[in-house]
Fold these 2 entries.
Entry 1:
Amino acid sequence: MVAQFVRLKLTLMGNTFRRSVWQTIGFLVGALYGLFVVGMLVVGMVVLGTDDPALAGSIMILVGALAVLGWWVIPLFAFGVDATLDPQRFVLFGIPQRRLLAGLAVAGVVSIPGIVTALAALGVSFAWWRTPLAVLAALVGAVLAVALCVVGSRATTTALAPLLESRRYREVVTIAAFVPLVLVGPAFAWVGSQLGEGPVDGDAVRGMVTRLAEIAAWTPFGAPWGLGAAVHDGAWGLALARLVVALVTLALAWVVWDKALARALVTPPAAGSGGRAKGLGFFSRFPATPTGAVAARTATYWLRDPRYSGSIAVVPLIPVVLLVVGGGSGSGIFLALAPFTAWILGFSISADIAYDHTAFALHVSTGVSGRADRWGRALPVLVAGSVVTLVFAVASVAVAGRWDALPALLGLTVGTLLVATGVSSATSARLLYPVPKPGDSPFKQPQGAAMATLVAQSVAMLLVLALSLPFLVPGLVAILADQPVVGWVTLVVGAVVGVVVLLLGVRWGARAYDRRAPELLQKVMSAA
Amino acid sequence: MVDPTPLPPVAPAGVPAPGPVPGTVPGPVTGPVPGTQPGPPTPPDPTAALSLRGLWKRFGEKIAVAGIDLDVPAGSFYGLVGPNGAGKTTTLSMATGLLRPDAGSAHVHGTDLWADPVAGKRQLGVLPDGVRLFDRLTGAQLVTYAGLLRGMDRDTVAERTAELLAALDLAKDATTFVVDYSAGMTKKIALATALIHAPRTLVLDEPFEAVDPVSAANIRDILAGYVASGGTVVVSSHVMDLVQRMCDHVAVVAGGHVLAAGTVDAVRGDQSLEDRFVDLVGGRQSTEGLAWLRSS
């Protein structure tokens, strides 16, 4: 049974290659990247283990604990991370529960994250190569850890499945998940600056790591990773204790999964009570024209579809991130707030048709003109974007105490917003790349899409950069070299270049749309 | 751009039906009858609601539609039947402007759809199969959206939306998001988006799938009334019974070809449409296999 599940999983993975060359290339790039990271990790740990086994052990425990924790928690946010072997699909086969569980558990390792985790866990065990017994213990620990990852993630997702079934809850959680993700980078920067500023030297860091690791090794997440270290130190009692913690956790997770699955299999997913909205919303407020209708629909989606509203949720965090990265309000980096936000917002419609997915058929069958389609998608971003970015521009100038830079900053902001929107309007009628489907998590990148996405986005970004140069250069000169006159020039040039690029981009995109709307629909459908 | 050359006469191979069906070929059959392929293609019929000539589409290795000629007379209730994978959806997509044919033409009331898509699409109401809807909108918003996209004015859209939702028994779900609709309700709301602009011709791909019997009866009444008032309806379906009762014309499609086309009575002769269909398409298995499945 286990072998059958593994074979099924491998077949499913293999079949994704048949669908498109891009997916295969994307997978290969992803696999190579994963292997590279694992390789570096293993080499690094082996070198460190040779040099300083105690520190290596502590780091192994900390990083390992984070990995296990990630396996347990991330699927709750990025639901459906790996639903290829959804237990619901085996309901009708009458497979004994125990065999089903065993099969799913082993097959869970057969996935890119699973294989990467397993390789890394087994590989770093050889950090103890000078003490063969410790290698053995570490290998046992590695197997336990991987089992904990897989079984634990299944246990949490299955146990909380009833909650996750509710569409509303899922959407709220998904948007909320953006917050910690965006703040991870600044958090690291903050920790780094705390450590770097004072007279703290390597020993203090080392002490902190060791202390943290000692705690982590007693948690269910860190315990299996501490086996090798304990054996290496000859602390047999400690090794036994960690082994017991890991085994008990594994057993508990298994029981929870077993029980939750038994319940889930007899309670098929129920449609939650549907949400309701009053009246026609934006449709009664926007002009009753095709353009107005597209704009109303786009605006509704910005608020209702987590794939869009996720990016809205990020916007208020941008100033926080820039403040932390810039190391305070006085720095010049904070002045980048408004142009940066304008760039993000203008870019956000660059995959609009892919986001529509096959619902785009309505636009094709009703014969909407390219003009209406392009302007309808661009206008909500432009209106909302200009309000937000102008507020940001004034606020950042006020915070930085650089009122002299306001004209230049406004020029940069307006120019960037218009240019990015114009380029998005043009490219999104030409370059389609796979995006999360409607109803999927915004985090769920379609498999193997990385390469196509990268190409499409790089082309668009380079275009934005090239077209922004006329006001980017004077803007930077004005702000960095304190040249208020150049600032006014930036304002004028930014507005003019922005408007021209926007008009040309929309017109070009509209023409491409009129010529190729059926082909666009086919592309979206074949990506389905 | 008609490309009849690579057309092996597949149709005749399927046609030799065993039973005596003399009424089929000489009967009042409109459109090109299978077996008449050799010879110059007939020009599109400007009086027809839909006139397809030599439609051809291949996806990679697979030829989905291999030269379909079909005339849907204005004012007819036309059924398009065929086994799974026959090319029904592909044909209808090419006939409604959703999929560009590799070769061939589609005329809507005399307008060349692919030469003048805007004028062609204005006369068409389309219910495609297997596409999503903008399901983060409520039912009323979605129908309104379709109306406004067609360039209609706000008052007419509002009035018709209310009437359509009532007629399709969706009035109490008008403010529910389409994503929370059942499969049948989703079909019905999609149908409403196809009807809002009162098109001259309706092209509906599997309109009765997953729709409950009461709603299906309501939809049939709506469509029958629409045809009676001069509209044209093209439906694709697997359910022969339904097509035989509901439609006045039918075309049998298999393997990307039209095997038979004409009035329902002419195509079915003295058989039921279902039996005639199976004769035409072939592929019936004798039930001698699967002996182990018999419970006795």
Note: The longest helix of chain B spans residues 213-228.
Entry 2:
Amino acid sequence: MNAWAFILFATAFSALVAAHFAAAYRSWRATKGQEPSDIDPDYVRLEDYFARSFRMHVSEWLRLPPEQALPDGTRVLRKEGEKIRVSAAAEFAPYSVSDEILEVQGSFRAGPGCLFRREIHARGVARIGAGSRLQAIASDGDLFLGAGTRVARWADCSGTMEIGPQCTVRSRATAGAKIRLKRGARVASAFAPTVLTALDAHDPETAEAELPQPEQEFPVPDPAGAGRARRIALGLDPARLRQLGPDGGLYQGNWKPAAPLRLRVKMVVKGDCKLPAGSLIEADLKADGNVDVGAGSVCRGNVIAGGDIRFGRGCRFYGVVHAGGRLHLDTGVRAGRPEAPVAAYGADVLTVDDGVIVHGKLASGTFVLAGAETKKRRRRQG
Amino acid sequence: MSPLIVACRCILVLTIAALTAYALRHHLFVLSRLGQRKSRDMMELVGYVAPSVSVLVPMHNEENVAADVLQALVDCDYDWAKLEVIAIDDRSTDRTGEIIDEFAARYPVVKAVHRKEGQGGKPAALEFAGAQATGEILLLFDADYIPGRSMIKFLVTPFCDPEVGAVMGRVVPENGGASLLAGLLELERGAGYQIGQQARHTLGLTPQFGGTVGGVRASVLKAVGGWNTYSLTEDTDLTFRLLLHGWKVAYVNRAECYEEAPETWQVRSRQIRRWATGHTECLHDLWKSWLRAKTLTTAEKIDGLFVLACYWTAPILVLGWLASLVLFFLPQAHSSLAFVVALSFMGYQLFGNQATFLELGTAALLDGNPRVKMLPLSLFNFFGSTGAICRALLAFYLGGLFGPGNHHWHKTKRYRNGNGKNGANGHANGNGRKNGNATAARLLIRAPNGIYLCRQEANLT
Amino acid sequence: MRREYIYPHRSVRAFPVSRLRAAAAIVLAASLTAGVARFAGPLLDLHHRITSLTIKIAGIPAGETTAVRVFSYPGTVPAASVPIPRHGDNPWRAPVLFFATLAALTLVHRLVPLARSFILFLSVLLCAAGLVIIVHPMFAFDAATYQKIWLQGEFLVWLLLPWVSAFLFVLTLPAFFHGVAWMLAVQAYALFWSAVRLAFCLGVFHITGILYVPLLWFCLGVLFDLVYLLAFYALALGLALPRAVGRRRS
């Protein structure tokens, strides 16, 4: 045996073995003492955070010295490879293209077919022509997005936002007063004191109807005298019902009461739940499957479903709604109150018919869709 | 064929089967997390669910960290009218009591509770203080945690679901750079939460309530009999009792909170031995009722057993390895059983273990954690954990033979020197580290009721 | 159009696996496994040649090539013939090496707390070999037997590795072709590195006898397959990280 050869080989082999751990060791040395993973402990959820943050940054950028000053008073500032154009009012002709951040210190108008690759801040009213494409826009007045406009990120205004037909806002739409969703408009989420779809002339915006007064109650007021028959009338098989905590019940299977119902306790349904029209739900309701709330019903508690949720015509809800599938708000649905906003979320598409008013937020894991297209879908589904 | 060879073969087959089952589970979790659907995500509802909350912070000789956690909780974005922070001085002999009294005097939302005697351990302290809590939801934080401003809102949101009895957030080690072990534990925690807990939540299985950075409904806690003050892992015990009674546990991946990971192997070894013993106790106490439970689906039952029995994989692995060692030296085995020997090595070494590392790697990828390159060094941590778990289970089962064991609560060592400035308020801490989002800090202002508003809104009110 | 540097919070990041990618991963893994099975003979032959070359470079004496049977398929394959001394040839060698190694392990055990369980693992292997030598001094473990066990284990690794690395690289790395490249690299490395490790083991046995046989088999055998797999995986992830974190899920 050649001892030296083997010693050399063994050394090289050991080095190769160590090499498998070398990168790991180097990584540890490099990250030793480093800051931990980036949790943002200051994070506070604000629905219009992006817009507010953008406005704040703009106010800082305005302190930059101008790179260019034009005779009409327009200034161009430079910030890290991007340009910011500051002007009084601004009007863009149809099919204009801009690669600059726009700070408009008055009203803003863009013709149809424009392309704005950077953010826009308008201190006055902003009107975007049909078919335009924007990065993001914040208006300190009202905001009108023409038909077919596409916003790549967020849209915000301090007043009323009108999202035109077939518009798309790929991130949040937030407004200080109202958001009107025209038919075919799509947003990822819409938040405002009032979010509404197209209203009929006869649909009042603020009137609150009386509460329904269903005859049946659950739990029954007098359990001793209730009997099996009564429970069966409620659509409950007693063998499948059990108590869940001091203030709730759990039902194995589908639950479809035959008559309008007043639900006074929390209920978890391990199946689908279909509530007749005119029901009054005073506590939280959850179904693993789908929830169908009949027309004219009122839900005071939260409504949660693993599947789809549908609120029938004229329903009202005052708690949060969370659907693991689709969420549909039929015509005339009202949600929340100005002083107590609510949130409704559908992991799949959230569809909103005409005449819906929500005080608070509509959000979806895919998109919120308003109006006529939903009728097309319903017709297709027969 | 000799009985020894037969016995070794059987052990190998069992080892391969058990570890392959866990490996498949890990693979499923990784796939689920990678392709995560948002159906159970409730983050869009944050801020719209606002029950009354009592935050319990048990402290036993926590003068180093007490100020940090209390300051962070006081700085949380939640309506003070619906919030109480109950700081529990649990038989402390240092300045913990004084510190919590100072906070109680300064902030009406903080209540100081002093416990001078009684059974040791965290569950006993929680039971004592819980009786004084008035909130619908009880949130728990260990003293070494630093919750962010939105933590309370994140954690209470899933309680809009009436089936949810408890909620768990995510724990992120803040001291991953302090030692090699802490760095490896950061990777391990990432896998456990980012992949394991999240996948179990998404798949409707059994996420675990971890006893900190989490919460439970007060009414539910009472309904299931309160805290098990004799358990070493009262959180695991509570999780399974909740599930047995028909409640669910929700996991909130967004609710991230810093913790201090053990920096030395001695501390880590004690921690993991406690977990192994506690889990195994729960397994023995609950497995029969778990299998018989009508409130659980088959998938939940299976996953629950995997969770409770997870520490058994260490001695199973060691047994399989010993059986391989025996077969290795038996000449009769080589001619026909080398296949089994080789397969067993692959089964429990390669295929089984790599699934765990797959979780570590995927979690690091999702987190963007540059320490992912340290993955090969995790093997040493893995060996260490295996040894510690085996030691714990040996003591547990031998203790069962020779009489009930004497459970000692060992407080996990704290490394930080708390001064109230390490937390969520964006101040630099003693190490000069800045944390927080400067934009948010400038944008926000706190209203008198504790809620954060935008400065513009605040000017209007 | 949308700004590229914006990416979602890590709690909602996802890299969904498309059906196409999953199908491609399965096809790749199946093809590699089939390829290994189909060309088992040539691959094992190549393995032997690398081992022999390494043995020669390392100055380890080797006799005529022998043959060992690696399962019924691929059957008999060539193996290096390296003499391994029995305990009886030099009765002092084993005890001296045993206690020296134990002393070294004890030292590491005291100095590196994190490695204690691993050291215990090695110690048990060492003691097991020591026990065999004491109980059965004439116990022999020839190179052919060792290579047979080794090749059986490694061959199965080569068959299963495509499936493992399909998961690790092809499904989880953001860039598909990078994943494929890593998968192929690991497969090639598996063969090469197995041959080199085997040569080292045979060299050590030639010098020390059977004392280190179980230790080296467990540590440098299939366990080390996991080590290099992890090393490759960590490297792949580390390189993919900047791109992955910057990507946005639309």
Note: Confidence is low (pLDDT under 50) at residues 419-435, 457-461 of chain B.
